[in-house]
Fold this protein.
Amino acid sequence: MTSQQNFQQYWESKKVLVADESSSCRTSIARTLIEMGAKTTQIELAGSHSEAMSIIESDRPQVIVSDYFLGKQFGLDLVPKQKQQYPDNRNTLFVLVTTNASQSAVAEAAEEDVDSYILKPFTSETLRFYLLRAVQAKVQPTEYRLAIESGKTQLEIKSFDEALSTFRKAKVLAPAPSLACYYEAKTGIHLKRLEDADRAYEEGLRHNEIHYRCLSGRADLLILQEKKEDAYQVVRKMVQNFPISTQRLGSILRLAVETENYNDIDYYFEIYQNIDQRPDYLVKTVSAALVVCGLHHVQSRQIPEALEIFKKAVAASGRKSRVIREIIVYLCEHRLFEEAETFISFFEPGPENEADRVLSEFLVLDGFGDLSTVIERGRDLLKKGFHNELIYAVLLRRSHQAGFREAAEKLYREALQLWPEKKDYFSQWNQS
Amino acid sequence: MKGKKLPLAQVLRHFPMGQPPPFHVKIQEIQNTTTRTAPIKEARLVELLEQGIIIEVPQKTGAKGHHVSLSIRVEFKETTCTIPLTASIVAQESVNKTQTLTLHFIQIEKFEWSALQELLQQSQTNVENLFQRLKA
């Protein structure tokens, strides 16, 4: 049988889903698939994420061609859904066809079981070429690939001992079997044999010292073993050699903070800036990491550097008032009132930001204003309903300084009523 | 600088061979010059043909035989390249609220069109190489 017939047969036997928001793209891709041998009656088209999900559920397509973005959701979400239907990866094909050419998106797809990554706008020749290539890898795999896929299926159905033996056998089928080592390690983790898993990763990295999957797997394993310093060294190697997926960037940032590698955070911020679609969790992680990095610089008395980093934190958060307030509070705690004042202008107008803004302005005023002005403004804020523990703390301290003992006592009682659990905190300010 | 307009072939000469920077390709505006209706901004480039393109536009933008003028916009971080062209509609298909138009070029700067084809091909090759390296 010729390979052309082989491919024809492949497509004829497959149910296909094309998921894309653009009806023209769906049609264009479907037309190419039909020209390649797919049956018109076997192709389903989905214009949204939910439609695609329900077609996978009802029609169980073996082949999925999806855009990276499906509305506000992602085509990659369809991979695990397809896997639920077909644990054996040899019978399925997942292809991304997308305008998203960012390296982080490519890395993300490579971490999932995606078989091909095709850019839009495409020519029908390009589409056909890469689809054929992906099918070829499925229908005419090398012995090594076949063993890997077989082991992956065993892993998927939780036959861990069998999978382990398959991956070990696969290792002798290729001169540099890093991928087999990676899956051997993954199986080892499932079997809770973490030391064996680490040895397998190390073996994979001896075959190829910058094998992406072995590096990423080993970093995850070392984190799991609480060996964060070692994990960070592995992560560094990854970052030096590969683009970082959006998902991984968040965990790398956390690790950089936990291992106090603050000098690297600026570099990760640059990577973050080049990401088109930033999920909420990443926005929060990046701005939090930058704030922590800025705090570190303040503690080291590297004030200009700290202020630069804080500005990046504000930008990364999209000028979230909570982040700006946090920075101002911290700068005021370190008596950097002038520096804190420069951040007031970052607050966006609007009632939702008012509480954070007035608190911040009050803390800055505490640094510059005379006693009576601060007390007057603090009382005014309480009257207007801005009940914040920091306002009470400043007022308590300032009332004692002014000799207003009765007023201070009253404030102290009010504060304890509002925050009974913070007695120690307020007591320190309730002293003459 | 952002928004600076230069010919694509000229811009690509400034980048190392085979290493184009990130970019976005868009249809800037399309006008049906046969019906002389107002220009439409909501157009999407779907597929590149040998001497034409397939685009997605709102319903009733054009019919077979009509002529259109449009620009393909290639946006880099610092620079934008615009490839103006005129074309005739050789096929049209309506799906839901959109229309798929197959356009055959009447007039387009040949070097610019070749540069765009090369840019997209190079970009696909780079993505494929990276993808295979990551999956190895």
Chain A has a mean pLDDT of 91. Chain A touches chain B at residues 22-25, 27-28, 47, 99, 101-103, 106-107, 109-111, 116-124, 126, 130, 178-179, 208, 211-213, 242-243, 274 (CB under 8 Å). DSSP finds 23 helices and eight strands in chain A. The first helix of chain A runs from residue 3 to 12.
